[in-house]
Amino acid sequence: MNFEGKEFTAYSIPTSNTFVLIIGAEKGILGCGYLNIDVANRVNDVCALVTGVKTPDDMLSAKVVAVSEAASKLGIKEGITGKEALLLMS
Fold it and tell me: Distance (Å, rounded) from C-alpha 59 to C-alpha 42?
């Protein structure tokens, strides 16, 4: 996945009932609601979560609903788009 001159790696992992969606950036990840922000905080990872998404492309326009402490230090906050969060992680 490429935009604004940056490269990101998108994953869509099927489960029995849904998909786990993750987009990796240089400094962190954008994930779907399947993931747990508390774990990201525990291991000091940069992570932002979006919900209500079905594809990696959906994640770009979705609003961030949870942010790890490490992500917050990069300027990532709830309410920005997934794309904005990824650019701050790149």
Answer: 24
